Structure formats: C-alpha cells, structure tokens
C-alpha cells in the first residue's frame, strides 16, 4: 500500500492509457468474439447460434483460398522484405562517402511515407500496357509484346510482394543501420588486428552483433503478415481477385459488402488466432527471449 501511495502519480498517468486500450482495443475484441457466436443483425434480435458462423467459414472454399493467398503473399513479403533491406544496410555500411549514404537512406525511406493509394497509382502507371515505363522498355529494347501486368494472374502475387517490399525497404533498412551503428568499433579493431578481411568482419562481427535487431524486425514483420488489406484493396481488380484476395479482404467482403457480421467476426477471430500461433512459432524458432 505504501508503494502504491508513493507511486500514485505514475499510476494516475497510466489511467488514460489503460482507458484508451480498454475502449479501442480490448472492448472491440471482446465484442467481436461475442458477435462471432450470434446471428448478428443491425436491428432486432441477435440470438446466439453456437459455432455456426465458424462452421460456415471453415466450410467456405473462398476462406481457404484467401488463407493460401495470405500465406503466399505475406510469406513473400516477410522473407524478401527481411533479406533485401539487410543486404542494402550492409552495403551502405561499407560506403565511405557519408553524403552518398545519407542520400541513399532518404531516397529509400520516401516510399514508406506514401499511402497505398499513391503507391498503387505509381505501380499502375509504371506497369500500364500502353504507356507504362516497364512495357515501353520491354517493347523498344527487348522487342517483346506488352504485358498487362496488373490484369495477369501469373504476375499478380509477385507484384503485390514486390510493391510491399519496395514500400517498406527504407524503414527496415534504417532499423538495420541503427543496429549496425550501435556495434562497438573496438570489435572491428580487434578483428582487423587479427587479420580479418572486410567480409570476415561482416560475417563474424556485424551479423552476430546484429542478431537482436534482426529478431525484433522479423517478429514485428510477422505480426503484420496476416493483416494485409490496404494494398490489396487499392491494387486488386476483378481479373486477379482469385490470386490476391487475402483474409482481411474476405472479412471485409463478408462484413461490409454482404452485411454478414457473424461470419466476418468468426473469420477475424481466425486471423487473431493464426497471428498468435505464428508469433509463438517465430519466438520459439528465433529464441526471441534470449535477446
């Protein structure tokens, strides 16, 4: 009791934070779980129907298609979006000219500041079959026929993965560079005194010392793997929906477009459950608690 009185001011400062999370995070979560067990309607009775909504979602083939698309696209973004910024950060760390390093960081970070509406417009413009820069290069330099990238199912997932990696490349790269900057210079000096080459310094000093940063970035990216929505909503079209519609689009379709809140809530609960399972798996595999 004496400790509580002593730190009363700090507990008072935490009240707005607790209220915020209770109102905007945990109450919607509890309400969503309740809705998933109801025949939810905007007006009138909302009887409880047990697991019928979950049964409907599990036996819906489009749900499993959406799950596969989510794992495919999200997995690609997770792996490539982790490796590519790491390689660029290691390369930039070797650049001696500070002005070039700062300029490259700024240029890489700019796409992260843009909304998906702008990013989608850029890719639609670049990949247009008539006036897109990519097709102009393919036709005029390589003599190929123009490709309708945004309406071709074979390109759909690759474009989604590539655009997402490009957008967040700079953000992850800066996190890696911050981790590299925190490595003690004495370790590099000791390695050089032992005759280590530049590559050996990267392999035996930089990468091991960067391990904690890599674990944090990989875990944060894993948490967002199943929550892909804005990008798909902006860049999808009827020609490629079967290849790019993800779990959050399935939930949006059920809840907003079809006004079926019960199945939408059940699908949302699966997203939360799968995210928790993935997070636990990643923590175990990467030994995150040993950071």
From TrEMBL:
Highest taxon of source: Bacteria
Membrane topology value: Multi-pass membrane protein
Domain ABC transmembrane type-1: 67-282
Subcellular location: Cell membrane
Record Gene3D superfamilies: MetI-like
Pfam family, one: BPD_transp_1
Major subcellular location class: membrane
Similarity comment text for this entry: Belongs to the binding-protein-dependent transport system permease family.
Identification of the protein by name: Sugar ABC transporter permease
Organism of origin: Paenibacillus segetis
